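Deliverable D5.2: sample structural annotation.
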Amino acid sequence: MPERPGLLRRFFLGLWRLLDFSRRLVINVLFLVVVAVLLIAWFSSDKPPRLEADTALVLNLQGDLVEEYTIGPREAAVAEALGEQRFETRLRDVLAVIEHAARDPQITRAVLVLDEMGSGGQASLREVAAALEKFKASGKPVIAWGEGYSQPQYYLAAQANEVYMHPGGMLTVHGMGGTRAYYKNLLDKLGVRINAFQAGRYKSFAEPFTRTGPSPEAKEADVYLLNGLWSVWTSDVERVRKLKPGTINAVIEELPQRLSAVGGDAARLAVEEKLIDGLKTRDEFRRGLLDAGLPRSEDDDETFRQVSMYSYLRHVHEPLAGDAVGVIVAQGEIVGGDARQGRVGSTSTAELIQRARQDESIKAVVMRIDSPGGMVQASDLIREQLDLTRKAGKPVVVSMGDVAASGGYWIAMGGDEVLADAATITGSIGVFGIVPTFEGTAEKLGVTTDSASTTWLGGATDLTKPIDKRLEQVISQLIGNNYREFLALVAERRNSTPERINEVAQGRVWTGAQAKERGLVDDLGGIDEAVKRAARRAALGDTYRVEYIEQEPRGINRYLSLLLGRVAAFARAEFGWESAARALVGMSPLQMQRELELIGAARRQPLTAFSYCFCEFRQSP
């Protein structure tokens, strides 16, 4: 019979069991509390708030304006802390809310409060502006107020019948532009050599790694594109604000003198230049709406009766049955296989297209593209699925968002019809490849290597040695062939010839308006127009529904994203990581990450051809 433990030992064993039980109990209770809170939030969020008569819709957009949510909860927390991922608002939700509210008799006006709005592409902003224009045409006014306005915030605020700003605020409009980092000097110091291959003299992807500044061709293309985008922006704002053409450029050009004339008061300058209608504090703005006849809120008698955009969204429902136009969103870089949110995977996107093709209730497809491109083969696999859908008798209309360039444009060639916004960034018909080699790095570190293989090609991918001349010839021929295929594809779909397409290709980017002039798109229009045209091609009449075919986080994951995003937002605000990164390298951490990821992909697959464009110019706060 085993000996019984001593008293002291039994005491400590009992104490340990008690502590262990208490720890497990506390953890389980906390877990159950969190689950209960999330479930309550989940189920309660599905119940739309009760609307009273004469309610104002408050369009309080938060975070970046996107086509679809980009990342999951854990990634969101890290990215938010790094300053790249704020809360996001989907463009489709904003458009649906405004369209529904225009017909809702309970909603009598809209109030734009955009202080928490982040960045937005110009094409997306123009779609929201068009929706606001229709809202005003229904006889309902739009009024805007802000503590201040960034450039994207002001673009939307300018669409309002009346625009007000806090007396201590500032309206910041600076034009279009961006910063690109060049790594050649750094790579030289590290002993890294970038072997670049390209088809198209404007295809400038490799320049940050092979030059210390842009080539004349790249600079020419960038300036032409930016001037085109800025022309659209200024003409839109000057039209709705009833300003003379050229007013905004004149104010920016003479800003020091004009600001001096008003004693350095930026808010007063905005009023005198008629960019806004007046200056009011938040309380003064609220009182003004109450004095104009809006009823007081039942929850707070100091403000007017209102419903936020996110609460009102629960009133918007699409029918669940009947013939439909299916919408598939391709947002982000194009890669092979399955892709996480925020990227376009050849396999995962092909599955969505296949699902739409096999769904008998889906009578037509709209392919919404917001992508700067990526891998050539992945782009072509997605286009092939669109071709199969058309051959199956279902029309395909392509709708270009903020950017549909390079591989994004390649995908667009799978449509019966291609629509772009005037401010879409598109084209960039070109192909490139890069092979980084590290012979200099190995020498600096005192590392030598040796390899054995049965053919020269087996050893040619040893990146610790200079690139083999024969491998250079192979890659050059592959890139040239891919470019010829790209030209032939575009020529066939655009009813042109490869020679004529080559004149507007060469990797050059265009605005949507410039692309239409050159025959690269069929017409100008947004997602709503694309859906209407798809329905018309499928002979659906006016009675059809719109169904987004997607894979996205639902249920508890949605609330985990929200919770983790809040925590990470606090960390970013406290430590200011985004500002530090921009100050050091002149670009955001995510932008730098994307560039370096492509280099990594090229290192792993040296024979892979890419059709990619660093041509996204999102307007940031």
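Annotation notes: The chain has two domains: 55-177+237-315, 325-543+576-612. The CA atoms of residues 83 and 503 lie 40 Å apart.
The annotation will be released with the project's public dataset once the embargo ends.
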